[in-house]
Amino acid sequence: MFVAGVVPAVADNVIDTIRVRRLDSVKVGATRISEHITSATPLRIIDETDMSRLNIVDMTDGLNRMAGVFLRDYGGAGGMKTVSVRGLGANHTAVSLDGIIQTDVQTGQIDFSRYNLMSISQMKLIVADDFDGLQSARAACSSSTVELQTALKSWTKPSYKEFTIEHGSFDRYGVQLLWQQQMTKKWTLQAVGHYLYVGNNYPYILTNGVEKEKKHRHNNRVNTYSADIVSLWRINDNAALDVKGHWYDSYFRMPGQVIYYNPYNNERQHNRQFWTNATWSQRLSPKWMLKVRGKWEWNELRYKDVDAIYPNGEWTENYWQREGYLSGVVRYDASRWLRLSYAADYIHNDLNSNQYLNSNVDRNGLLQSLTMNVKWGRVTVNGRWLYSSYDNHAEGVESSRDFDRHNASVSMSWRIIPKEHLYLRAFYKNIFRLPTFTESYYYHLGNADLSPERSTQYGVGLTLQREMALWWRVLRLSVDAYFNKIEDKITSIPLNLHQWRTVNIGKVRVQGCDVSMESRWQINTGHNIILNSSVSWQAITDRTQKGTLTYKRQLAYMPTFTGFVSLAYENPIVNMAFSVTGCSSRWSTHEHSPSTRLPGYAEMGASLWRTISMGNNIFADVKVSIQNLANKNYCVIKGYPMPGRAYRIGVTMKF
User: Fold this and answer.
1) Whole-structure pTM over 0.85, yes or no?
2) How does 79-103 read in b/e, with b if 16+ C-beta sit within 10 Å?
3) What is the pLDDT of residue 130?
4) Phi, then psi, of 214 in degrees rounded to 5
5) How far apart are CA 179 and CA 225, in angstroms?
6) Residue range 91-104, pLDDT digits in tens
7) What number does CATH give the domain 33-153+252-654?
């Protein structure tokens, strides 16, 4: 699991991405205008307060609360979890942690199961571009981005400590320790350690025709460890340096897909990761701002399958990835209505393994971007040009092609009525994703001649925020319609019974609409009711070749409708929340044969939480939650059953 620090606390005119976690909220008379209402591109922000109100107990809950998102979940605490935004697939979704993009050049997908929600202070979904003037060029290289932010603890004393213990169903035990010390007035250190164990042998119902049988998932144990250290140095009012180090170690037993009359599986996976990064922020003058980021990362994946079918009784695959990254961005505030910025990034990735024809490959990338932000009266216009150049190299095999691309994005927001927070927004973006190392080089599957997979996005939307009455504190609405297309889709096709080949043949069209609503009522002093909901309609269809069985049919595992609703009641005694998340039926294949239909589902959850003052500046946060309240038996991915009803209890001591 995952913990890290934040950008150091520097004067407001130096850093505009500070995230501070406060233990006691400050009551104000007016409701602030949410960033996702005024943003020129679709945006969804979930902070720590929202996580309780929306009944979020892990990363999957948080992602499922975002309109337009579909989560591929392979079940349980250790099951892989990837995100598709607006039907474009997980490979088109980037993940950013405290402003630095996380990568996996082997598969191109980030597994969200490795992130620990206890360390996350904010989750943000950005569709297209954020147009932040201090954003790296790499941050603009994806169709959508999930930003995760961690936070420096705010406390009345120089020293702060936090101890969290968690217990849940299916032998779940977790513990986290945090120590933070203000060494000097300008220098703060933070250290965090986290451990999670889950037995994960949860029950499920196996249906075979008219027969139903109760089974348990076997070989499903999870062990994860992580450790982090963060140094935050506020050099002066105009400069700051943030340095972080992270270690992650996980061991998974993998239950595999459910197979009739064969419930056992002996696959194992061991992951280790180390990275360190630094961010230097400097205000050069009243109009010039500089930010430099650097990162070095090492990843190891060891896979083993124990089975008598292999010559030595087991099959092993070992992979090692490394990345070096350097980014610099300079911003010029030309006037009150015009802001310009230039960013340049260099990336080096390499991968080696114990596999035949996939032993040593690497890639070098150079990215440059120019960004313009114009705000004139009630109109905001943003534009970005991105240049990407990639050089590939491989030892002993044909190298993947080199690529040079120019891409652009533009967005606008118009406040329609001067005295109302009613906005019209629209955007356009074209971008691409590179072939992964697996798609380019993997034995009997890879193709070094692949072209990038290209995506184009169009969107238009309306947003509104109003304070309806003294007791109806806020109403927020957003409606977004969009059209996306993918060209040169990278697809694996069978050449014969034993060999597949990866090629560029696919075309996909996406039409969709997302509707979100938030409403908060203050029924008495200290008593608030908060309602949140969203629904998405997406037609994600294959447009590769007319006359085929898949033409104009919904892609596999992509539901037409997804949505959620949550209701929270905050009061001085004990806070409570209830939520429902669900989706319509899907198919596990593109052809939509009757046997591949997966029924829709709706999962309910509930939680209670309260902060208790223990005296002497000591506080205890207590939370009890129940997931899958109705004990629904369902699969997101065919053959990977989800857990049934489960409880979780967590206590965090702060002192």
Assistant:
1) yes
2) bbbbbbbbbbbbbbbbbbbbbbbbb
3) 85
4) -80, 125
5) 17
6) 999 999 888 899 88
7) 2.40.170.20
